[in-house]
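Re: that chain you flagged

S.,

Sorry for the slow reply, it's been a week of failed gels. I finally had a moment to sit down with the sequence you sent. For the record, here it is as I used it:
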Amino acid sequence: MSSLKAVSRRLGTWVMVWACWLAIQGAAWAGPPVTTNTEKAGPGSWVLPYVIVILCIALGMLVVCRTARRAERARPEKYEAVKTAD
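Prediction finished late last night. Pasting the structure tokens below so you have them in one place:
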């Protein structure tokens, strides 16, 4: 039952974060559209967003693909002994 409680607490937290985000974005969406000067937008204006996306992808790959660092390694001989006893 504690697992269900933890999942519901986490889900409730995410629902609150989502509701707050929508409340903040509602004011931004209701405002007048922002006009940008197209003359200023050169080739350097898109570099920073792409660098941020590439860094986020690299960080995600680092987290997913890193090796496990266990204090104690698995002992195959003990595993084989238990496996043959069953």
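What I noticed first: DSSP finds three helices and no strands in the chain.

Talk soon,
D.
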